[in-house]
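We treat protein structure as text, and this decision shapes the records that our systems exchange. The tokens are whole numbers drawn from a learned vocabulary of local backbone shapes. One such record is reproduced below, unchanged from the form in which we store it:
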Amino acid sequence: MRGSAPQKATTMALFVPLTAAFSAGQSLSAAVGLGENALHGILMPAVWTPANLTFQVSVDGVNYFELFDAFGNEITVIADAGRYVQLDPVVWRAVNSLIIRSGIQLQPVAQVSATALILMTRISY
């Protein structure tokens, strides 16, 4: 109908924020269970010792493995303080739990202060 307000979706998939906490002096976060949720983005805190992000992932919440792509490249997210990093949720559908690393596997970066990342997840179908 011409001139009317745009229609709004009647249902909306809501994001479920989860926290990945880093203790001061550590380069690995505490483990975060995703369950049925896929990771869509990461809210970086204002307090962040400069470092990119890499990941250890688990399908059972017990055994963790370094995350690489099919070409043997470590999956790395370019990160900086106070930024929202959008991710492709398809990559995260088979991940049940994850640990985030500050830095890369061969060169981890300890966080000077305790800090936390907010993981924006949504149920994965």
